[in-house]
Design brief:
Conjugal transfer protein TraG; 322 residues; 7 helices; single chain; globular; alpha+beta
Length: 322
């Protein structure tokens, strides 16, 4: 939750600090140390004899402050964390100790130096296992970020066109025709592309949808061209050693400006197009004599499921690769 807020305030690397080893260190430090607090819940470093204070663990003080922050600026994530933590208040100190001990037992593995390094950064695109072709576009209704973004929670129609060959005949066809896609609360459209696309294609995003009512964005239409760029060794294309086909390097995107888009609200940097035609396999290997490492595999599979589950919900409740 903190990372999400700081990211919105311009800290692009905020999410990099949220790792399981950091969470484990946080709990180990905060849960094992106690401080004095006064009647308002403020920490007192050196209380006098006359001062009314009580002892609390640092983690309890942390969640007390978290609740106060949530009263001023609500967050469902803070609320969920607070409810889970307060569940231990139904028991006494022994019950709280058992809850804390059980929690630490589950994450102690990630305090090991080698495991901490392994799990501190993920370079695997988890969503590409089920959705190898994805389009993400950031929409804004004004260049002023302080103004309301009219594109939030609106419905768009996505159309992808390109040439298709039948022998010597080429014809313009719709690979995707007016597929509906929702814009999230941050102004992002995320769409999973099911068909494989030609080397050159055009994407049209139209907001003329009945669910948008009388919204000022209903007359907005955005269009951009895309071209596959293959790896080259000098002037020659690099070929895959197994399939003997050219290796895709990236997709080159170019926004096609319209007369209506006088503010240039859509830029190439707002578009992310992830594309692959190849199957993907991951091998998870752990030492047969170290069963505790199975927890790492469970964590990876849990992340893999959650990442693809969320995307599947917004794309017809199914994965492209199953």
């Amino acid at each position: 939750d903190r990372a999400n807020e700081t990211y919105q305030n311009g800290e692009d690397d905020a999410w990099d600090t949220i790792t399981i080893p950091n969470v484990a260190k946080f709990l180990a430090t905060m849960g094992s140390e106690e401080v004095f607090v006064d009647g308002t819940g403020e920490i007192v470093e050196n209380p006098s004899r006359e001062q009314q204070v009580s002892k609390k663990s640092k983690i309890t003080v942390y969640f007390d402050n978290l609740r106060q922050v949530n009263q001023k600026q609500f967050s469902k994530f803070r609320q969920m964390a607070d409810i889970e933590f307060r569940a231990s208040d139904f028991g006494g100190d022994e019950t709280k100790g058992n809850v804390y001990s059980s929690m630490m037992t589950g994450i102690n593995l990630f305090l090991q130096d080698n495991v901490a390094k392994l799990t501190s950064k993920n370079s695997i695109d988890l969503e590409s296992f089920a959705f190898p072709r994805r389009l993400s576009v950031k929409f804004r209704s004004s260049t002023n970020s302080q103004l309301k973004n009219e594109f939030k929670h609106k419905t768009a129609k996505v159309t992808i066109t390109g040439l298709k060959k039948w022998g010597k005949v080429e014809k313009q066809v719709d690979y995707v025709k007016q597929a509906t896609a929702l814009i999230d609360g941050e102004g992002y459209l995320t769409y999973a592309i099911e068909p494989k696309l030609p080397d050159q294609f055009t994407v049209t995003i139209d907001f003329n949808h009945k669910k948008n009512g009388k919204s000022p964005v209903r007359d907005q239409v955005f269009q951009f061209s895309a071209e596959k760029v293959y790896r080259k060794d000098g002037d020659r294309l690099e070929l895959d050693e197994y399939t003997k086909k050219p290796i895709l390097d990236h997709i080159d995107v170019r926004v096609l400006k319209s007369k209506e888009d006088t503010q240039n609200l859509l830029q190439e940097s707002d578009i992310e197009l992830i594309y692959s035609d190849k199957p993907r396999v991951v091998y998870l290997v752990t030492p047969p004599n170290r069963t505790e490492y199975n927890g790492i595999v469970s964590l990876f599979l849990d992340q893999l499921f959650n990442a693809n589950y969320e995307l599947a919900l917004t794309n017809g409740r199914k994965c492209i690769n199953r």
